[in-house]
Amino acid sequence: MKNRKPKAVVVGGSIAGISCAHALIGAGWNVVVLEKTSAPPSGSPTGAGLGLDPLSQKIIQSWLREPQLLHNSTLPLTIDQNQATDGEKKISWTLTRDENFNFRAAYWADLYGLLYNALPSDSVLWGHFFLSFCISDNKTCVTVKCKVLETGDTIVIVGDLLIAADGCLSSVRKHFLPDLKPRYSGYCAWRGVLDFSSNENAESILDLKKAYPDLGKCLYFDLSSGTHSVLYELLNKRINWIWYINQPEPELKGNSVTMKVSGDMIEKLHEEAENIWVPELARIIKETKEPFLNVIYDCDPLKQIFWDNVVLIGDAAHPTTPHGLRSTNMSILDAAVLGKCLEKLGLENLNSALIEYQYVRLPVTTKQVLHSRRLGRIKQGLNVSGSGPFDPRTARSEECDELQQKNMPFFADIPSIFNVTT
Ligand SMILES: Cc1cc2nc3c(=O)[nH]c(=O)nc-3n(C[C@H](O)[C@H](O)[C@H](O)COP(=O)(O)OP(=O)(O)OC[C@H]3O[C@@H](n4cnc5c(N)ncnc54)[C@H](O)[C@@H]3O)c2cc1C
Ligand SMILES: *[C@@H]1O[C@H](CO)[C@@H](O)[C@H](O)[C@H]1NC(C)=O
Ligand SMILES: *[C@@H]1O[C@H](CO)[C@@H](O)[C@H](O)[C@H]1NC(C)=O
Ligand SMILES: *[C@@H]1O[C@H](CO)[C@@H](O)[C@H](O)[C@H]1NC(C)=O
Ligand SMILES: CC(=O)N[C@H]1CO[C@H](CO)[C@@H](O)[C@@H]1O
Fold first, then answer.
1. DSSP character string of 190-217
2. Is the same domain home to 284 and 334?
3. What is the extent of the structural domain holding 274?
4. Given the CA of residue 140, which atom of ligand 3 is nearest to it?
5. Which is the closest atom of ligand 1 to the Cα of 329?
6. pLDDT tens-digit map of 369-413
């Protein structure tokens, strides 16, 4: 037992899953990641832009052979700005501006590529669909069944620890919490990335840069009555936008929060954009090829995130709305903290390690999920406890202060477990 490397089986090979592989390999574990999709994502899957906080940046760099690569594949987001738009008069004005925002903007597929390419090549088993697991009577090993999609064979993998990184609809979580239902937020998000590398001097791009002069280093939030949008630039001449629209819960087909959209829906989107936003933003939305629609859910925070030798990380542990730019940050920090706990306490004390992981992470993610939920409701003009619906055109300045990213609970906190080891 002493000379044997402990082994973890990770379900889900997205950001949380491969971050976990890095963290556990660093802690001296063997790791196998099971991912149902058949190959590493290339180009642009459903992911778009995301914001990385300073701690996440540091952790990611510690996993890369060439830490500079992170810097080279992202753009700074040093300003967090909220502005109100009057769609009739086609004007907007600043509500809040924080120039000490220290995030970086990454394209999901670029970040994924960086992390994945820095892993040993056999870490992820592609096209492996997780089916079920079974914990041994003595609670020390876990047997995982999965289906190899190419052949149809079912195979069994045995490990010391099962890590569920299978996303917000986690089937591992469902095993322990069959009654936990995702909560529809009340709105959906249209998203898109406009690639302007082949026409940098197009009129629409020059106009956009005039209307949003800090593009390239600023995270812009535009607020109108009962709706808001997000705009920032990504490396390699790409503009990332998100637009949240209140609506009844749509019916989802299959196991994905991304909806298929019709030509009619896109046409309606373009029309509405012209009514609500300044023309410069409406035009960018119109020129974006293949915008997609995410239905926004979260879950009430869980009371526990491990059972025996099964542990949840990432969206599986804390489905959240995206308003705090937190989901990827949370996944990366979950993985790093879990790795530290396992390294510190060893396989002999697996239970203590999981208790510590939960003790460090659960209070933080609980507050962040609820804060993000509240922020989303404020920005969408929905009821929030303690005040009436927010209207950016009439809001008092104390009300506007609440919109800033820096009010996120534990905003600049670094868990002490990162200080105790060398
Ligand atoms: C509108 C919107 C904006 C966002 N913006 C940001 C942002 O600005 N910043 C940010 O940090 N994050 C953002 N996110 C969130 C981010 O994209 C991810 O949610 C986050 O990286 C957490 O990832 P995860 O690995 O936990 O889960 P997921 O990315 O959902 O991954 C789960 C993985 O598990 C696999 N899987 C599931 N079931 C099985 C099975 N049975 N067998 C094998 N594999 C399985 C799936 O194929 C998938 O690869 C945003 C999300 C939305 C919707
Ligand atoms: C990152 O970019 C800098 C400046 O362009 C370059 O000198 C350096 O080699 C790049 N580093 C990596 C690891 O690509
Ligand atoms: C626990 O049970 C498993 C499977 O039944 C067995 O392989 C393992 O040796 C047992 N471990 C201990 C510490 O008893
Ligand atoms: C919003 O709050 C008001 C007063 O606080 C209440 O009357 C109303 O029913 C609430 N609406 C919703 C949809 O919760
Ligand atoms: C700088 C920053 O905002 N980092 C935060 C990322 O999220 C975790 C919690 O999930 C915070 O503890 C960090 O402070």
1. EEEEEE-TT-TT-HHHHHHHHHSTTTTT
2. no
3. 70-107+182-298
4. 1
5. 11
6. 999 999 999 999 998 887 788 999 999 998 999 999 999 998 888
